[in-house]
Amino acid sequence: MARYLTGWIILWLCWPVSAWATQSHGGPEGLHVHQMAHLFFSFTMGLLIFWLRKWHLVTAKGWRYIQYSAIFFIAWNLDAFLSHWLEELSELMAIESVGVMQISIKVAKGHEWLALLYYLSKLDHLLSVPAMIFWFLGFRWLLKTPQTPNGIEDATP
Amino acid sequence: MMVTILPIWAVDVGGAVMMIVLSFLSVRYAILLRERDPQNIVWTYLFWMSMALALFAVSRSLGHIAKQVLIVTGNSSAWETLRPYSGAINSIAFTVVGGLTLFFERTWTIYQGMVHDRKALQQAHKELLYLNQNLESLVEERTAALASSEQRYWRIFQASRDMILSADAHGSIVDLNPAGFKMLGLEPDELTPQCRFPQFMNVPDQWQEIVAEIQQQGFIASTELDLNVADGKRRRVLLSGSREGVSEDNIHFVVKDIEQQHVIREQMAQADKLASIGELSAGIAHEINNPLGIILGYTQLMLRQEEDDTQRRDDLKTVERHVRHCKSIVEDLLNFARTSTPKKELMDIHAIIDDVLHFIAQHSSVDGVRIDTHYDKRIGNLLVDEKKIKQVFINLLMNAKYAIDGNGTISIQTGLSACGRRVLIRVHDTGGGIEEKNLARIFDPFFTTKPTGEGTGLGLSVSYGIIKNHGGDITVESFPGKGTTFTIVLPVPVAAVEN
């Protein structure tokens, strides 16, 4: 039995064929990774809010600002996710650049509202900038208040 | 639909610039926070979070600015080349921010642990410092407290009116308080290992029972037993005891003298008994008194009609004499039963006693009998029925005279009680005393130790009734061979007490 098996292995090694061991990935996978990164970002911001509330850190102003920042980041991620989906994946609409400052948005019949939704979703900085402002305010409060991270009791020796 | 992208362009470029500025300011604050307390893990964590957000802001904002600039300048193809790289870097930035966020929970938990440990360390440090600085004074305080506590318990041990005794399992007395020495009639130098507690028990075998019970349940509570105490007296006591500790052999006892309570209880029982007998006697006396009066009346009528020197007259005289004797007994019974109200007047008790002594000296032989009187001059007039009180003293003195049998001393002593509300009159004789078994019965009607015909056994009963009728009390103390003492207690009139 062992002899037969050895024989087969030798024959197989003498006539090699393509193994296709490394799998190639096409264009859409990059977009999927990007979208998943948005979802992951949202999820972790949700967790951050949960922890801040669980430990009652939000009773302190600085951490409350950071909580608001996380809320805006979640909103921004969802907005960006939607925008990418409409641009790249939806078969209901087609966007085309026409001139320097104009675009053409073509939508399937009966889905005209999608054009407005897409336009609004492109204004995503209206969400990301407040998120960053709250993040900044939170840090400023933590720095100005001569307290420990939880903002309640002195933990320094 | 054709739309302008100017608003999008403005928000995109302006927002991108603001994102970069704000993220850099946040990093700056994070650095300052970390510098304030470099050991604080939360500040370190927030610094890295800010760095990650700055990376995210820069990568994304630069991408957007580049996109808008390239599109506006008509280099869309250049943007198409740059776009995948920008998107990839953005994806990495999101993942880094998200990944770092996941560590927030662990970081915060570690920080809490550190805070807790730091506090415990601070507390321990503070306590150590305090102990180090105050060790000497603390030891002094504790020693003083210990000494004070020891002194307090020592005072309880010394001042206790009950006996506190410590003995080993064999009964040898290890320690004894002053009340114990007094009760057992011991001197401190007599407290040797041979001095055993059981030897003071009236029934020494009780010791084994007590020890067995203590070994079984660890203590013994309120056990009544008789002790042979100082001067050979017997005293009823209540004993409680327990072991010093599980491994210790010594037993602590607290012994309470309850003799007095027993005496009072017996006196109350005696009073109850006499009251019952009194009621019975009164009933009988009333029933007999009337027929006796009729018999005496008819006998006296018949005597008036009878001539002198006849046999019949002698017989009637005999009947009259015996009826009179019966009437006097009935009268005594009624006196004992306290049916008649005494006619009280304010009288000098000392004068009454002197009258009685004079009467006895005249009517009875008192040769060889010494009579001592010790009067307390503070005593004023008492509210008494002179005739009846005289009868009491006559009874007591005649009994005393009988007891000393012609040779001895009778002493009469008067005094005031501590509160000044009662007069105490003690009649003491140096006779043979009364046997203990008879003591409880001496106030019973018709009880007498005299030979038949010498006494009716009503003298003390009548005295008891009279004194009780005066709101007083009469008690007896007697020790065979040493004599007897009767103590009469009479109330001082209220007006005299107020004065």
Brief description of this entry?
Chain A has 157 residues and is mainly alpha-helical. Chain A is 63% helix and 7% strand. Chain A starts with a helix and ends in a 13-residue tail after the last helix.
Instruction: Encode the helix/strand succession of chain B as letters.
Output: EHHHHEEHHEEEHHEHEEHEEHHEEH
Strand order within the widest beta sheet of chain A: 1-2
Overall spatial form of chain B: rod-shaped
Global morphology of chain A: flat
N- and C-termini, Cα separation of chain A: 75 Å
Residue stretches of chain A low in confidence (pLDDT < 50, at least 5 long) are 152-157
| Mean pLDDT across residues of chain B | 86
User: Which percent range fits the helix content of chain B?
Assistant: 55-70%
Series of H and E elements of chain A: HHHEEHH
Structure report:
The complex is a heterodimer of chains A (157) and B (499). With 157 residues, chain A is mainly alpha-helical. Chain A has helices spanning 2-14, 27-54, 61-89, 113-121, 125-144; strands at residues 93-97, 102-107. Chain A has a two-stranded antiparallel sheet with strand order 1-2. The longest helix of chain A has 29 residues, at 61-89. Chain A is flat and about 80 Å long. Residues 152-157 of chain A have low confidence and may be disordered. In chain B, 59% of the residues lie in helices and 17% in strands. By secondary structure, chain B is an alpha+beta fold. Chain B has helices at residues 6-36, 41-72, 76-102, 104-159, 178-184, 206-217, 259-305, 311-336, 349-363, 386-404, 436-439, 459-469, 494-498; strands at residues 2-4, 163-167, 173-176, 219-228, 234-243, 251-257, 345-347, 369-374, 382-384, 408-416, 422-429, 473-479, 483-491. The mean pLDDT of chain B is 86. A five-stranded antiparallel sheet of chain B has the order 3-2-6-5-4, sandwiched between helices. Chain B is built from 13 helices and 13 strands. Chains A and B meet through helix 2, strand 2 and helix 5 of A and strand 1, helix 1, helix 2, helix 3 and helix 4 of B. Strand 2 of chain A pairs antiparallel with strand 1 (2-4) of chain B, so a sheet runs across the interface.
